[in-house]
Amino acid sequence: xxxxxINKPGELVLQQRDIPQPAAGEVRIKIRSASICGSDVxxxxxxxxxxxxxxxxxxxxxxxxxxxxAGADSRRIGERVAVDPVVSCGHCYPCSVGRPNVCASLQxxxxxxxxxxSEYACAPAENAYLLxxxxxxxxxxxxxxxxxxxxxxxxxKPTTRDVALVYGAGPMGLTVVQVxxxxxxxxxxxxxxxxxxxxxxxxxxxxxxxxxxxxxPLAELLNGEQPTLIVDAACHPSILPEAVxxxxxxxxxxxxxxxxxxxxxxxxxxTSKEISLFTSRLNSKRFPAVIDWMARGIIAPAKLVTxxxxxxxxEEAMTIFEQDPQRCCKVILTVG
Length: 336
Ligand code: NAI
Ligand code: MN
Ligand code: ZN
What we know:
Bound molecules: 1,4-dihydronicotinamide adenine dinucleotide, manganese (II) ion, zinc ion
CATH superfamily of the largest domain: Medium-chain alcohol dehydrogenases, catalytic domain
Number of helices: 10
Oligomer: single chain
Number of strands: 18
CATH class of the largest domain: Alpha Beta
Shape: globular
Helix content: 25-40%
Order of helices and strands: EEEHEEEEHEEEHEHEHEHEHEHEHEHE
Radius of gyration: 20 Å
Distance between the termini: 10 Å
Number of domains: 2
Largest sheet: 7 strands, mixed
């Protein structure tokens, strides 16, 4: 089979490999499509602290089960499935409280173990979720990025009365916007970015107001309006102090970033408004919810897709994704 391998930081190759055999409890998936995420580029560039090399990258993928390992149900052969990349132990403290996404021995497919930019991949059977026919092949790999939005919004508990502010209109910000509008029916969703084309995508995804903070500070653009719910999907360390200053009393703020750089917030700025802070990493068993949302058409993943290329053109696809954020949002890789 052909697989996209990052041999070491900076070295991406399309490699001929043996088709993997599913281990006990695993299924093997013949992959039909995958999508590119910022973290794939970070592994390529050597900027992902969790990555081990050489690695077959890709954690957003879907396909058809074509083999099962010992103990896995062989009746599942032929199922169309999306694969949850979060592999957890099931018995540590976080797993025991329903937080397998921060399992003490967390393994992420495509990061810690070989992933889905490949013709075949293996995964624990319980990580492979049956897709209904209502979800077409073209968007089936996009379940995973929406689980990020599902996870953070589960903490934030949006209501129709919220005035939401989303920082960043990249793929992550857009999934959040779609979930806030389509799932939670939040009355007002404001998105801030400095790339006009991305703000246009945010409006297409349901944003009520978009603001360009490229030259004018956000505080000025908001004109006194105080968001009650804020999601940082831009993830620069300077954002949290600004968000805290702009937030309404009793607001909730959700953070998605992994920056190692410090940011400064005072206790007073948080406590005086009794602001709640939540962080969210990957997803804790959110595949069923997102599959349901997609099947019901209350989120629209196709609106994120700007490019589709065959797996063989991976380097070109990753380069467009990395270098052209004006035109590029989600890139679908077609396999086989
Ligand atoms: P992206 O880089 O495509 O999008 C970020 C957007 O934020 C860009 O459009 C950029 O112009 C905008 N931006 C940057 N600074 C800004 C500022 N100060 N104000 C307004 N807009 C600003 O990235 P993508 O793929 O959408 O991911 C966003 C972040 O989410 C990344 O930092 C990534 O590491 C993180 N992430 C976290 C996950 C988690 O589970 N916690 C999962 C996936 C991504
Ligand atoms: Mn992703
Ligand atoms: Zn665990």
